[in-house]
Amino acid sequence: MIYKEKFKIGLKDVWKGKEVSNRAILEYLENIAAYHSDSIGYGIRSSEKTNLSWILLDWKVKIIKRPEYGKVLEIHTWSREIVKFYAYRDFEIYDEDHNLCVIASSKWLLINNQTGKIMKVEEEMAKKYESEVGKSVFNEREIEKTKVPKNYKNSIIYQTKRKDIDIIGHMHNLYYLDIAYEALPEEVYQQRPFDEIRIMYKKEIKLGENVICQYTYEEEKHIVVIKSADEKVLHAVVELR
Length: 241
Fold this sequence. Notes:
Layout: E1 3-8, E2 14-15, E3 19-20, H1 22-39, H2 47-50, E4 52-63, E5 72-83, E6 86-94, E7 100-112, H3 123-129, E8 154-159, H4 173-183, H5 186-189, E9 196-201, E10 210-218, E11 221-228, E12 234-240
Antiparallel strand pairs: 1-5, 2-3, 4-7, 4-9, 5-6, 6-7, 8-10, 9-12, 10-11, 11-12
């Protein structure tokens, strides 16, 4: 089943007043994934009844063409595969002329809202997603794992604020990209937009926690590693190129 929605690029969604930003793209993708789950009874609207939530583990995004402010986008998404506790979801974004602008893949984990425990996706639930097995935007089943560098060129400390927190009490997925940008050296930050984004989420960040965001450049990628302040817990790795 391919689920489709249209989104109009607003003022807050553009970078330097013209082209759609990476943050906005991730927000569109996140929203359409939620709308798809809502439509079959396993989304935010039904969470009190099902006591289930999807937790995002991985993003892989490639921007082919960057649409501009005011344009209407048509976004397609589908469940690519559901295996035990995990769901793989792909996306395509098209502009008004039906040009393919963005492709993306993601990996999700099902959890119990009350206990926080990982839940197996039951057959009845999986059937409702009508997975498009074999329809993949990238030539891979599993999103490749990211490496954690050993040496860094720059770092910042960030304390999570109330505005960062989502409905389940964790830092919202989008804010990991925001704080990664803050860790970039100024000359790198000004190179935006980056047309390839890879985010691996490992451990949730909660309100008031201090995290260290460490930057380096390796293998033609700008990498920001987000850890606990004592560097004992890995929260996420963000790669940009």
